Amino acid sequence: MKNKAKSINKALDNSIPLCNNFVPLWEPVLEVHKAMRYTLLPGGKRVRPMLCLVACELVGGQESTAMPAACAVEMIHAASLILDDLPCMDDDSLRRGKPTNHKVFGEKTSILASNALRSLAVKQTLASTSLGVTSERVLRAVQEMARAVGTEGLVAGQAADLAGERMSFKNEDDELRYLELMHVHKTAVLVEAAAVVGAIMGGGSDEEIERLKSYARCVGLMFQVMDDVLDETKSSEELGKTAGKDLITGKLTYPKVMGVDNAREYAKRLNREAQEHLQGFDSDKVVPLLSLADYIVKRQN
Ligand code: GRG
């Protein structure tokens, strides 16, 4: 996993240059590239690209075949973090232990960097044809990513998050339903896309892709449940971002609706469910996916 993270970091580093054939980039573009690199490169756990690579290998593909798509998924994730931290959204000043993108580059450059990261993600994925992936599979992967960004994914989740702050609910069941729908869109759909796109690049069958999708949906939701738990139980220093913010802003979270202990139990249940979806795959080859899910449920930041 550590080797995979190293390869991902190297590929990400190469994807956004600061000069072209030793000639520095045009100054305005250089600034945007610096802003893109600032959020894309250091400090991320790389859960999504890692999942993409191991899904590719699980269905018999090579890590290198899925690398452009893995980087693309991380670019979309970085693009969403930049937007999420903006003053008009969550208005956050700390991410991964350092000032957020707009605090360093200003809002205008941050918005440009976020948009540029999204379009670079498409460009990267389309380039997979040069690695021998059929255009049909590449197009399918791009379609999955587009779905994960728009109103079937991140945008819907964020819109629900913003609307949730002003909403009143009849009872706990109603709250839970809204919370789950919001987090599936805001977090799980991109995690799901990471696994699906990896399996598509690796030449997986429709059945394999479906099973990985179900596994990743559980993992994605579990990721968000643990994110909520950590927000309430850890310090800003430990998390590298402003802790306890959900409580202050009155946001709907799993610990708020069901309590911290029940939220942890729910995450463990989702982990078991995720594992069940991997039955039928080669038991040795699923080990990285099982470890990744375990890491997510036990992570401390
Ligand atoms: C158009 C790209 C785009 C997005 C628009 C702003 C927005 C809609 C969505 C926000 C989505 C968002 C930020 C969800 C939070 C997901 C989450 C749990 C982030 C933390 O992920 P980690 O822990 O972060 O993997 P690291 O730092 O490890 O990369």
Continuous helix count: 15
Assembly category = single chain
The secondary structure category is mainly alpha
N-to-C SSE string, H for helix and E for strand? HEEHHHEEHHHHHHHHHHH
Bin the helical content: over 70%
What is the CATH H-level superfamily? Farnesyl Diphosphate Synthase
State the shape.
Answer: globular
Q: Which kinds of small molecule does this entry bind, naming each only once? A: geranylgeranyl diphosphate
How many domain regions?
1
Spatial strand order of the main sheet: 1-2
Topology-level CATH name: Farnesyl Diphosphate Synthase
Q: Which sheet architecture does the biggest sheet show?
A: 2 strands, antiparallel
Name of the CATH architecture:
Orthogonal Bundle
Unreliably modeled segments: none
Q: Supply Rg.
A: 19 Å
Overall pLDDT, averaged? 93
| β-strand number | 4
Strand content: under 5%
Distance between the termini: 17 Å
In short:
The protein has 301 residues and is mostly helical. Helices cover 71% and strands 3% of the residues. Helix 3 (47-58) packs across helix 9.
